[in-house]
Automatic annotation (TrEMBL):
<feature type="transmembrane region" description="Helical">
    <location>
        <begin position="57"/>
        <end position="78"/>
    </location>
</feature>
<keyword id="KW-1133">Transmembrane helix</keyword>
<feature type="transmembrane region" description="Helical">
    <location>
        <begin position="213"/>
        <end position="238"/>
    </location>
</feature>
<feature type="transmembrane region" description="Helical">
    <location>
        <begin position="181"/>
        <end position="201"/>
    </location>
</feature>
<feature type="transmembrane region" description="Helical">
    <location>
        <begin position="151"/>
        <end position="169"/>
    </location>
</feature>
<feature type="transmembrane region" description="Helical">
    <location>
        <begin position="26"/>
        <end position="45"/>
    </location>
</feature>
<feature type="transmembrane region" description="Helical">
    <location>
        <begin position="250"/>
        <end position="271"/>
    </location>
</feature>
<feature type="transmembrane region" description="Helical">
    <location>
        <begin position="405"/>
        <end position="421"/>
    </location>
</feature>
<feature type="transmembrane region" description="Helical">
    <location>
        <begin position="433"/>
        <end position="452"/>
    </location>
</feature>
<feature type="transmembrane region" description="Helical">
    <location>
        <begin position="114"/>
        <end position="131"/>
    </location>
</feature>
<keyword id="KW-0812">Transmembrane</keyword>
<feature type="transmembrane region" description="Helical">
    <location>
        <begin position="458"/>
        <end position="476"/>
    </location>
</feature>
<feature type="transmembrane region" description="Helical">
    <location>
        <begin position="324"/>
        <end position="347"/>
    </location>
</feature>
<dbReference type="InterPro" id="IPR002293">
    <property type="entry name" value="AA/rel_permease1"/>
</dbReference>
<dbReference type="Pfam" id="PF13520">
    <property type="entry name" value="AA_permease_2"/>
</dbReference>
<feature type="transmembrane region" description="Helical">
    <location>
        <begin position="377"/>
        <end position="399"/>
    </location>
</feature>
<keyword id="KW-0472">Membrane</keyword>
């Protein structure tokens, strides 16, 4: 089952035959990375992390950030060496074979599409709160929450998902330009938050540091990992990047480093000003985020805790005497969170694009719009699913499910780097992962640790999704695979020549 390996030379040839327009540079990639990373995790999920770990969420950010850092170094080597669309899927195809590549691509659906839905729900929370603060408009909860969260449908989340879909169909360059503006707003908002909260920190707010023990810190790290998800979406833009051998590593590592600094300062500002102790039940038991029990406990204290807020940063500023700035932070989140949705959907469509190009998905998925030069068919289809996820599921559930797919993909890339160093040591590597025999295994172990720190329900759902993926592969994709049928792709100059048959690779 590991025999169908697509050679790197064939992968690069395929990209040349049906390539996307190269228009992105190092600065744009870094901005895309920051746009994809800073979003729901810090604006919304800070409250969930506090409920699980208390002030110990500071350590949760460090753990999740460290796992991402070592994984980013592996991503940087692979993306610079293989500058084509597809990210972890493409790398796995070249190293570990078609079945593993399919499973990675299948898992990336959990990462990108469901994550885009989660961010859409996070945006909805800020938007509804902003309407209430600004215009005293109270939207019925039945129209702003899904059925799992006490409502019927989340209309604002659906709306923003549809707007972003239309923007992506319009074109990558336009999307990147809009994103750069939104990233600027986001960074300005977080900088303002840090400047106002850090000077008034009270060290006593950090005690007790870990009220739920290290298990709580681990659980929070597994959830807050969502705050870092997105940097790998930069690597899916490799085929649209100028000089990818230089620019991809800069975009990946640069965006992650900037985001980590912001996260630590923002988390310290929240904890040190208003505190971040979990809300417990009547018997002192821990209450899980996003449950009716926690909602009831929060109602009993009139939502007077950061863990009860759907807009944690804006709420914090209002509590420390900056209500207008809190309003501005809410407005900034409303403007900036769509950039995260954009990058998640961008990554999803490019994964589907290259899987279709390999024959594992229907060929019409890889059609490029004659005017906009974007994969419009799969972009619209992805937008439909993201809209449905956003309409009916709560943000915490979506974030955890997304994390399970992401961690699987990260581990696969780290394994691919190690394997390729042994099987193809002479290939040019514009960027080499430092101390790869230590860095890559550390990334793999870190991913496994965070994966099994997720809830049992999330892990079970992931394995169920994986089983469904195998059924789809053997029922449809395996028999239509270009590699399995012995079809080798040709270069750009030979685009009118039919694929040439070669002996099947099994």
């Amino acid at each position: 089952m590991f025999g169908r390996v697509k050679p790197l030379d064939a992968i690069l040839a395929t990209a040349e035959k049906k390539s996307l327009h190269r228009s992105l540079g190092a600065f744009q990639l870094t901005m895309l990375g920051i746009g994809a990373v800073i979003g729901t995790g810090i604006f919304v999920l800070t409250a969930e992390a506090a409920q699980k770990a208390g002030p110990g969420m500071m350590l949760s950010f460090v753990i999740a950030g460290f796992v991402c850092a070592v994984a980013a170094l592996c991503y940087a080597e692979m993306s610079a060496m293989v500058p084509v669309s597809g990210s972890a899927y493409t790398y796995s195809y070249a190293v570990m074979g078609e079945v593993v590549a399919w499973m990675v691509g299948w898992a990336l659906i959990l990462e990108y599409a469901i994550a885009a839905g989660a961010v859409s729900v996070g945006w909805s929370g800020y938007f509804v709160g902003w309407l209430h603060t600004s215009f005293a408009i109270d939207v019925p909860k039945e129209l702003v929450r899904g059925p799992f969260d006490g409502g019927m449908i989340n209309l604002p989340a659906m709306l923003i998902a549809m707007v972003v879909t239309a923007l992506l169909v319009k074109g990558t360059k336009e999307s990147a330009t809009v994103n750069a503006v939104l990233v600027g707003i986001k960074i300005l908002a977080l900088t303002l938050f840090i400047a106002l909260t850090i000077p008034v920190i009270k060290t006593g707010q950090f005690e007790p540091f870990a009220p739920m023990g290290f298990a709580g810190i681990s659980a929070a790290a597994a959830s807050i990992f969502f705050a870092y998800v997105g940097f790998d979406a930069v690597s899916t833009a490799a085929e649209e990047t100028r000089n990818p051998q230089r620019n991809m590593p800069i975009g990946l590592i640069g965006s992650l480093a900037i985001c980590t600094i912001f996260y630590m300062l923002v988390a310290a500002g929240v904890i040190g000003t208003v505190g971040a102790q979990p809300v417990t039940g009547a018997a002192g038991e821990a209450l899980s985020p996003g449950t009716p029990a926690l909602a009831h406990a929060c109602s009993a204290i009139h939502d007077n805790a950061v863990v009860c807020s759907k807009e944690a940063l804006a709420w914090t500023l209002k509590q420390v005497g900056y209500p207008f700035v809190g309003w501005l932070i809410g407005a900034a989140a409303i403007l900036a969170l769509p950039s995260v949705i954009l990058m998640m959907m961008f990554g999803q469509t490019r994964i589907f694009f290259v899987m279709s190009r390999d024959g594992l998905l229907p060929e019409f998925f890889s059609r490029v719009h004659p005017r906009f030069h974007t994969p419009h068919v799969i972009t619209i289809l992805t937008g439909v699913f993201v809209t449905l996820f956003a309409a009916f599921f709560p943000v915490g559930l979506l974030a955890d499910v997304s994390n399970s797919g992401t961690l699987f993909a990260f581990a696969a890339v780290s394994i691919a780097v190690l394997v390729l160093r042994r099987t193809d040591p002479t290939r040019a590597r514009p960027f080499r992962t430092p101390v790869v025999t230590f860095t890559a295994p550390l990334a793999i172990l870190g991913c496994i640790y965070l994966f099994f720190s997720l809830s049992f329900e999330t892990i079970a759902l992931f394995f169920g999704w994986a089983a469904l993926g195998l059924i789809v592969y053997y029922a449809y994709s395996r028999s239509r695979s270009h590699v399995g049928r012995g079809l080798v792709e040709v270069h750009e100059g030979d685009r009118d020549t039919p694929p040439q048959p070669v002996p099947p690779i099994e």
